[in-house]
Specification:
Layout: E1 2-13, E2 15-26, H1 41-49, E3 56-61, H2 76-79, H3 83-88, H4 93-99, H5 101-109, H6 114-117, H7 126-147
Antiparallel strand pairs: 1-2, 1-3
Length: 148
């Protein structure tokens, strides 16, 4: 079953980043994207996720397909927040009020040291910042699924 199909996809931002890209990704397949910096890898992923538009070509996504996308950089408004708070802030308001203990369980499972949980993200390594972003993404998606 085809999940994502790209046909003759291209993006031009001043100069072409890529052009005439065609590929199909099926269920269970994995795809690696390798290129030098500035060659359009992130832009391609934004196009696939639907947060950016291609200049040319077409993207077809399988019916019911949900695509998650995490940017490379932490949003500035999160950088001053402590790790724990940044993850908890992704929960829907009602869930955050009644079930914020779930964040502690997830951070325990990830072996996030207690002393890091109260540090602002800007004081943590890029690796810990990405873990916080990934957990926010999963918490947000779980909250949306539960609400929907």
């Amino acid at each position: 079953m085809t999940l994502i199909s790209l046909r003759s996809l291209g993006v031009t931002l001043g100069a072409p980043l890529f052009s005439d890209l065609s590929l199909t990704v099926g269920r269970g397949e994995r795809l690696g994207i390798v290129a030098a910096n500035g060659r359009g890898k992130s832009t391609l992923l934004r196009c696939i996720a639907g947060t950016a538009d291609a200049t040319t070509g077409e993207i077809t996504r399988g019916r019911g397909l949900t695509i998650g996308h995490m940017e490379q950089t932490v949003p500035p408004q999160l950088m001053a927040m402590p790790f724990h708070q940044a993850v908890a802030a992704a929960l829907p308001a009602e869930q955050a009020k009644n079930e914020s203990w779930r964040v502690d369980i997830v951070l325990d499972d990830l072996a996030v040291p207690a002393e890091l949980r109260e540090r602002p993200l800007r004081q943590l390594s890029g690796g810990w910042q990405r873990i916080a972003q990934l957990r926010r993404r999963r918490r947000h998606r779980a909250g949306c699924a539960a609400a929907g």
